[in-house]
Amino acid sequence: MRSASDPASLRAARWGLLAVAAALVFTFPVLAPNAYILSAGVVVANYAVLATSWNFMGGFTGYISLGHAAYFGLGAYGTGLLVTKADVPSFLALVLSGAIVAVLAVPIGIAALRVRGASFVIVSIALVLILLLVFQSWSSFTGGSNGLNVPRPFPDLLRPEHHLVFYYLFAGLLCLALLTWWAVDRSRFGMGLKAIREDEDKAQSLGVPTFLYKLVAFVVSATFTALGGGLYALWFGDLDPIFQFSILVGSYMVLMALLGGIRNLFGPLVGAVIVGSALEYFKLEFGDTQFHLVAAGLLLALVVLFMPDGVLPFIGDQLRRLGPGQSSIREVSAGELLEQNASRGDLPGQGDGVEGRAAPAPSEVTR
Amino acid sequence: MTSPHLVFQSLVLGVLLGGLYALLAAGLTLYFGVMRVVMIAHSAFLILAAYLAWWFHDRTGIDPLLSLAVTVPLFFVAGVLMQRLLIRRLSPVTLTMMSVLLTFAIALVIEGLLGYVFSGTQRRVQLGYSGSSFEVLGARVAVVKLIAFGLAVVALLGLYLLLKRSRLGQALRATIQHRDAAALVGIDTDRVAGYGFGLGLATAAVGGTALALDSTIYPSLHWHWIGPLMAIIVVGGLGSVPGAAIAAMALGILQSLLQLEMGTTWAQTVFYVALFATLMVRPQGFFGGRLAQRF
Asked: Contact A111/B108, CB-based, under 8 Å?
């Protein structure tokens, strides 16, 4: 938003940071000391894909879905069932199941997007619960609670090599999702979606085809989530309805995206790295106890209460505070200032004359 | 294939189950009415109350019904505090969305703590009259189910009288109908909303004790309750207490009847089918008015 004093150097710094981050992502398998850390890296990469996919819906349109685990599970089971029941080659099965979920998401989206806000969240939760019931009960087809074994795509690879290959596959899918998000973010379509997020009724009255836009965003989001799920199925090789259609997975996606910042391209990725590592740590430290639930719940509550915009914007604000151009001398005219104050409503009638004495501290200005 | 005798039996069971659903859905409706908050943690508090009843019985050997004397006031206070300290901190613009996430987080914490403290083992209250039942017109009714139903009915009746007859009830209904207008005529809507929250949680306390009487409980059980309850309040129309009660009865009976043909797991899907059908046909629900339109 704010144009910095030296845009060229800022852009260079941003590209540099991006390059360093990308280099870190791609050299991680080499740096990882053992196979366990590498497999944890795969899990985090998977979470990053899921959270970024979620953000197509949550970030652009502001429709918070707690039930994206439904598409994760459908993608995973679609891939697994195509491989085991129809003998489709693994990666063709992955693409096919992504396509199937995309088709399924259309009627689901039409039903779910008829309502807003809280009802939408209810519907999204209901979807996961219904799919959990169906996949558990229909055991002749899905294997039910006994699980479904998906054969590995590369049977002759050793376990660490298997993790390595899938780490890069997940990273590739993540890049694809991020690129798509970036492209949408800059497009007219993305502008329409953001208008829906800010005020749906106004967007509609200005001629944005809100329902169609929402539906497309919903389908794209579901498809990417399904691809993440399918890749998970090929990597992990063992599916169970309880874990695939788990509200918890859906809530992790929301937590990661919110924590990182849903308005930022890399927000969900950052959130996934933080939450994903924390979850792995909790599993390692506290084992099978329910403690990770408490931790996830507390973290989600803290984010919702204190950082609803996410950690990236929060840090950005802090950095901006250190940067130049933050003196108490204002670069606005008296008229603009009056307007700002009126819209903020907390400093009534402060004109130019009294500013010298009553200027608020710089920290207040940045808020 | 199904004898009329069996149908009547499940009809009776459906009514008994519907009563409990109705009480819990009424609580959810209250939260939504006073604060426009969808309280995902409602069923988690339900299970918490059930655990407290079980624990109380396990420790003292006294009838778990008596734990109501402690849990109902405790939950009422917890509800008021929750509204005061947590829900009210959220910005009003994004209240509906963020409160869903916040209450979801509370549900996770409660589930996690229950699992941590009481372990994931399935628990069940064993009482002298647990196994006893009697016959009404050929249908066999377990005593504990009847007690649970009785509790639900008494609590619902109390809630109804409170809403219709008392000054607080009048204030509550005014706040539900139109918050700003209620504030204009001198109602302290903030305080009333807190009491609404407390009453909602109190229904969870009653429901939980009733639940503990005749079911096996475990920490993640609340997910099996929240789905049907959410479906009920959407079908009934968000914010309408009678709508929620009617939808709860209808769906409870339907579920019980479908169990005969389809088995318990598939019968549960009736709630979700009803939910999606409602959204397709009447997104605002069958009994809700203006309130539900935009949520």
From this structure: no
> Which of B36, B101, B113 is facing A304, going by the closest CB pair?
B101
pLDDT (tens digit, 9 = 90+) per residue, A205-234?
998 899 999 999 999 999 999 999 999 999
Cα separation, A124 vs A106, in Å, equals 14
CB-count burial class (<10 Å; 0-12, 13-18, 19+) for A24: exposed
The pairing of strands A238-239 and B139-142 is unpaired
Q: Given the structure tokens 């991680």, which residue do they identify?
A: A28
**CA angle centred on A37, ends A50 and A222, rounded to 5°:** 10
Q: What is the pLDDT of residues A64-116, one digit of tens each?
A: 888 899 999 999 999 999 999 888 888 999 999 999 999 999 998 988 888 77
pLDDT value, residue A119: 77
B-chain residues within 8 Å CB-CB of A116? Answer: 294-295
Residue A104 to residues A97, A241, B206: CA-CA distances in angstroms? 10, 19, 41
**Cα atoms found within 13 Å of the Cα of residue B183, Cβ hemisphere only:** 7
Residues of A in contact with B223 (CB under 8 A): 129, 247
In a mutational test of the B interface, the residue from A122, A131, A302 whose CB has the highest number of chain B CBs within 10 Å is A122
Domain boundaries in chain B? Answer: 11-220
Q: What is the pLDDT of residues B84-120, one digit of tens each?
A: 888 888 887 778 778 888 998 999 999 989 988 888 7
- Give the largest Cα separation in chain B, rounded: 62
Cβ-based neighbours of B116, under 8 Å, separated by 6 or more: A289, A290, A291, A294
> Residue A22: which of A179, A159, A234 has the closest Cα?
A179
Task: Name the β-bridge partners of A238.
Answer: A149
Q: Is the minimum CB–CB distance between A66 and chain B shorter than 8 Å?
A: yes
Contacts of A150 (CB under 8 A, 6+ apart): A79, A80, A83, A84, A233, A234, A236, A237, A238, A239
Look-up of token digits 């899905």 = A142
Tell me whether residues B230 and A290 touch, CB distance under 8 A.
Answer: no
Dist. CA B242–CA B246, nearest whole Å: 6
